[in-house]
Amino acid sequence: MATILTTSHKLHAEQQGQRRRQRQALLLVLPLLAFILVAFAAPIASMLYRSVYNPALSTLIPKTAEALSQWDGQSLPDAATRASFASELQALAQTRQAGTLATAINRHYPGATSTINQSARFLRQKSDAQPPEVAAQWLMDSHADWEKVELWRAMRIGSQKYTSNNFLTALDLERTPKGELQARSSARIYVPLFVKTFGIALSITLICALLGYPLAFYMAQAKERTANLLLLLILLPFLTSLLVRTTAWIALLQTEGLINNLLLWLGWIQAPLELLYTRFSTIIAMTHILLPFMVLPLYSVMRGINPDYAQAALSLGSHPLGAFCKVYFPLSRPGLQAGALLVFIISIGYYITPALVGGTDGQLIANLIAFHMQQSGNWGLAAALGSLLLFVVLLLYWIYDRMVGSGQAQLV
Predict the structure, then answer these.
(1) E-assigned strands of 223-366?
(2) Residue among 134, 142, 138 nearest 116 (CA)
(3) What values do phi and psi take at 216, rounded to 5?
């Protein structure tokens, strides 16, 4: 009996000690968890929320927004709805907020800015507390566009506090008056830009792999002194500002830059080439910046590969190329996969380099997101574009994990 009690006390003490160690470990990682929550989870949640939350019109013209939610959208709204909007627009004009309303409506109906501003100036000169019929007529007299049902439909769409319109716009889609989805009738720019962004990212990843794999292979086979020197040269660009490295490419690729002058001096071209502000300049500059992210994972994996494996294959009669393809390359594949994943994901969201050297042809989706955040002020559309980019990257990573991760686990 005493033995059983002693064993029970020991087990209880071990469990208490284990729980205490778990609490201590949790306290050690709490700062990291807090940092992840503040720096990553909260901004992503805010971005997702902003992509569907659209309070601008419902806050500025609440009565009109409520009335338009009950409107059938087929003919002009009734006089009461138009009068309600006229009175709210008149109040906004007196507080100098009509411009904010014009900007919000213009996102759904291009050209509405001039209509709103002209009507606001017209109504500001009128007296308050007029019968609804008079206020509605004043609104119709202020601008001819108020006779267009499409403008009122755009206001109804924009007055929805929670909406999927930002995602539809980001996918170059729109809704018909009946609520059906269709391709946007105006210019379609977002889906082609997404495709171009992923195409450029894939091109950069392939170029980095073609350049980085032989370099990492040579470093892994070289003497330690030579490998350390090459590693220092690879890490040296990280000591220089990204802006400086990108600006250096501007000096190299411009019309009167070093590359064009050299080609002209050699007689290979008769006129300067347009190298700067193109897709080519974006790819070459980003490849230079992201190449270390390919070399370093490859080198770390290759340094751990035992050379006796390839030697054993050769001693058994394998051709050197066959030994490399069947023995060395599969063992180095984890480094190649890690480097490719790093380069691809980083290049998708790159902003500074395409903005400086890409011009119109070399812009990526990140540049358009920055435009909507900094210039157009359309935070909802910017958040929707960022959310779609996040979803696509997560989808690609899931596909990568399903296709490569399991196979790699079996290899190991």
Answers:
(1) none
(2) 142
(3) -65, -35
Q: How far, CA to CA in Å, does 237 sit from each of 242, 283, 313?
A: 8, 18, 38
3-state secondary structure of 175: strand
User: Are the C-beta atoms of residues 369 and 201 closer than 8 Å to each other?
Assistant: no
* β-sheet bridge partners, residue 174: 182
CA 271 to the chain's CA centroid: 38
Among the listed residues 77, 102, 105, 80, the one whose alpha carbon sits nearest the alpha carbon of residue 92: 102
Q: For residue 182, give every residue at least 6 positions away whose Cβ sits within 8 Å of its Cβ, in sequence order, or none.
A: 173, 174, 175, 176
Q: Longest C-alpha distance within the chain, in Å?
A: 101
Beta strands in 186-337 (DSSP E): none
pTM: 0.81
The pLDDT tens digits for 225-272 are: 888 898 888 888 888 888 888 888 888 888 888 888 888 888 888 888
Q: Rounded to an integer, what is the distance from CA 306 to the centroid of its chain?
A: 40
Question: Which of 93, 345, 34, 4 lies closest to 102 in space, CA to CA?
Answer: 93
